[in-house]
Amino acid sequence: MGRIKAIIVKEFYHILRDPRSLTMVFITPLVMIFILGYSVSYDLTRIDAAVIDLSQSRLSKQLVQAFAANRVFVVQTRGSAPGRTLSLGEAEEMLRRRKVKEIIIIPADLSRRLASGGQAEIGLVIDGSDTNIANLVYQYSERILLDFNAGLMGSEPLLKLDTKIYFNPETRSQFFFIPGLVAVILLMISAMLTSLSISRERESGSIALLFISPLRSREIIVGKTIPYTIVALLDGVVILLFARFWFGIPLRGSLLVLLLFALLYIVSGLALGILISTSAPTQRVAMLATLLSTMLPSFLLSGFIFPLDSLSPVLRAISYVIPATYFLRIIRGVVLKGAELQHFLFEGGMLIVLSMVLLAAATRKFNRQRKAAQ
Predict the structure, then answer these.
(1) Taken in order 50, 54, 56, 58, is the CA torsion positive or negative?
(2) pLDDT (tens digit per residue) in 308-348
(3) Are 319 and 302 in contact (CB under 8 A)?
(4) Can you say how many angstroms the Cα of residue 350 is from the centroid of all Cα atoms in its chain?
(5) pLDDT at res. 260
(6) Which of 193, 283, 286 is nearest to 236 (CA)?
(7) What does the alpha-carbon distance between residue 1 and residue 5 come to, in Å, rounded to a whole number?
(8) Which CATH number fits domain 47-166: 3.40.1710.10, 3.10.20.30, 3.40.50.150, 3.40.50.300?
(9) For 195-205, what is each residue's pLDDT tens digit?
């Protein structure tokens, strides 16, 4: 027992001598509980819907009002020209740009069919790129139509839904899940590649050679980033090819557009890794910090699993500084919807801004350490 006690004491000394790792052990579960507690929600708080009212009758306006009166639905009925109703082409473009989640089409003969004692079909076109949201949108829409039917006092439902699913007609969850998984893995790998670079040199002592070199701090940071950019881009191509040919994920858009945005995304991940590397004292701390700052936010706060509309305002604000939030829209839009370059100018701009901010912060941090060492 005396020998075992000696080992126990020694291990406690090892734990106490590494307070950073000990802090990560206690902080990580608290952060996970905090984020999971606010993000794990399958409820939709907002459904943007485009309405094409071909009937323009009193009954059709009542139906539109029934959707608009629901606290979840945000209904848009006007087209680009003042006073003109939406056309199908405009509504489909809004669906492709993720401005709406569904299109409600009211037929022109709605009143005539009901007056003759028949049934009328209400068209419902749903964005199926996110299968979970698509199912919820259908359920919410069906509930509103059932309530509206009950108000018509008919013995049978007079209105029924004719539903079509765009972009993922089979509603295969893999078509939604795999592109998101590609985005998460790509960010994690990119950040991991560079997060170990400076911390590795700090552990080996070779960082002193960088400190006394004639190179500027920003030249060192950029020089460390470029080789890993090439490696991460090749890795991204391999991941995309594997997803395409093994899982049968479609590629309805341009591969060149996807690779262009993937390059911006990879640079943002590498910049994050560099920033972590300049702050982490050891490779182990750098690896833990990378996993904590990439995996958890990318899974829970980027729209990968849970819709951003279901997040609390604080967590939704945090999602705006997560690179995966923007690349998820890009990869799913290109892969499933065939979206083009002009559809993602905002997302691309945000990736550039995040990369520049992270690289600037890493350069400043490295420069401070350099001056302190001298």
Answers:
(1) negative
(2) 777 778 888 888 999 999 999 999 889 888 888 988 999 99
(3) yes
(4) 13
(5) 93
(6) 193
(7) 6
(8) 3.40.1710.10
(9) 887 777 777 77
